[in-house]
Amino acid sequence: MTRVMIFVDGSWLYRSLPQLAQTCGKDGYVIDYGKLPGTLGDELAKRLGRTDTDIVRTHLFGSYPSNYDEQDEPVARGTTDFFNLLREEFHYEVDLFAVDFGGNRIRPRDRDPDHPFEPREKCVDVALATSLVYYATVPHAYDVAIVVIGDRDYTPALQQVRRLGKRVAVASIKGCCARELADPVDRERVKDVDIIWLNDLADVLELRYESVLRECQSPHHQGDRRVPTTYRPRKSRPFYCDDCRRAFAEQRRATELLLSAAPHDAGGGEEAQGGDVAGKVDKLFLEHGYGFARAEDGRQYFFHRTEVQNDAWPNLAVGDQVSFTIRTLPVHNKAGRAVDVRKPSTDQHAPGSGPGVSEVGG
């Protein structure tokens, strides 16, 4: 059995994807990283004339943004999610290094074109070369290394690996590969088989969003739970259909709008020291899971359905007498926060007798 390790310069590969898309004539081309190791292994087997290759490990080396403009939090989170995907779904070994953006925007198109700032990535190539050579010295770690690279700086490391008796295969992208690596004569003696061009494998490696049936796990789903979708949820993550995701997004927007009147525990109002308060349900939003109670002194308090005791939430209606504990006091025309909301046992409505959503105001 020929043991194979794959070493991917993730930063170079990301930068080179537009070139791959251009040569393939496919705008927005995306690689399916789940297919990458197996496809490279198959190509290596063809070049070696063997079928007994075993991909024992796939390493990817990349970077992530730090100290960036707060507007780019979604972009940074997307980067982190991608690397977590590689670890969790495809079992990559991922080594990451921070890039300091000095408070600037992450994407070049979002920065002032006259601003001289350019982020400097460090350590990715050094880390890949170090791991490549290190595992070459570990007995039985690998027999052949597939390196997905394009920079000539890796030449000394590749030469050293071959001196240690290991074989090397280079996978790269036309137009993004140093001539020392692409040289068919291999004057620098950096590889043992013909180069693997990802351009030739683009169709196989393309990420395709094929429609499949998945079961929506939203408790509020209506109709057949098995729906066609191209979305691929992460392992151990629930799947929600498009309709339920839109409904949740609308609910969240409505909640954020109404909660602008209610401070969080950590800020806004002054912390109260407990004590029961009597009042009435003033506004109720059953569909969204929260409401407002008005105390006898006229001040208003927000409460969440999880704070309603004795399973009384489904029976709650506007105008019901309640008692509750004040968590946060109202401040600056913003409602306070109520917890431990209770109905008197004698004041019960049949389930669903109250309105689903009351009028806002009044």
Description:
The protein has 362 residues and is α/β, with parallel strands linked by helices. The protein folds into 3 domains: 2-205, Rossmann fold, CATH 3.40.50; 212-259, no CATH class; 276-342, OB fold (Dihydrolipoamide Acetyltransferase, E2P), CATH 2.40.50. Helices cover 26% and strands 24% of the residues. The chain contains 8 helices and 13 strands. It has helices at residues 10-24, 36-48, 73-90, 124-137, 155-163, 179-182, 202-205, 242-259; strands at 2-9, 53-66, 93-100, 144-148, 167-172, 196-197, 212-215, 226-229, 276-285, 290-295, 300-304, 321-328, 336-342. The strands form 3 sheets. A 6-stranded parallel sheet has the order 3-2-1-4-5-6. A 5-stranded mixed barrel has the order 9-10-11-13-12. The chain has a two-stranded antiparallel ribbon with strand order 7-8. Helix 4 (124-137) packs parallel to helix 5. The longest helix is centred in the N-terminal third of the chain and has 18 residues, at 73-90. The protein is elongated and about 90 Å long. Mean pLDDT is 86; it is low at 261-268 and 347-362.
